[in-house]
Amino acid sequence: MSITTENVEHVAKLSRLQLKEADMEQFTNQLNAILKYAEKLNELDTEGVEPTSHPMPLSNVLREDETRPSWPIESVLRNAPDEEEGQFKVPAVLE
């Protein structure tokens, strides 16, 4: 598969980009170089490689969720500028 200047022009139009002719040629060449390199990867023997392999062992570093007591509501609302029914009261942002 190769990229043509028409492909680049189409993508530029979809992206609402105005490219000069020289830029379109440059992007066409660069995208074709990327595709050529990706085709080289098809030559690799991946037969025994798991699809989700990773060079480093992965482990979950998050702690387990555990319940614990919360702060008393009076203590939490002590410095609140305004409070109503045990909740912070803030100015309305929507009408």
From TrEMBL:
Residues 46-67 are annotated as: Disordered. Heterotrimer of A, B and C subunits. This is Aspartyl/glutamyl-tRNA(Asn/Gln) amidotransferase subunit C. Pfam families: GatC (PF02686). It catalyses: L-aspartyl-tRNA(Asn) + L-glutamine + ATP + H2O = L-asparaginyl-tRNA(Asn) + L-glutamate + ADP + phosphate + 2 H(+); L-glutamyl-tRNA(Gln) + L-glutamine + ATP + H2O = L-glutaminyl-tRNA(Gln) + L-glutamate + ADP + phosphate + H(+). Keywords: ATP-binding, Ligase, Nucleotide-binding, Protein biosynthesis. The gene is gatC. Allows the formation of correctly charged Asn-tRNA(Asn) or Gln-tRNA(Gln) through the transamidation of misacylated Asp-tRNA(Asn) or Glu-tRNA(Gln) in organisms which lack either or both of asparaginyl-tRNA or glutaminyl-tRNA synthetases. The reaction takes place in the presence of glutamine and ATP through an activated phospho-Asp-tRNA(Asn) or phospho-Glu-tRNA(Gln). InterPro entries: Asp/Glu-ADT_sf_sub_c, GatC. The lineage of its organism: Bacteria, Bacillati, Bacillota, Bacilli, Bacillales.
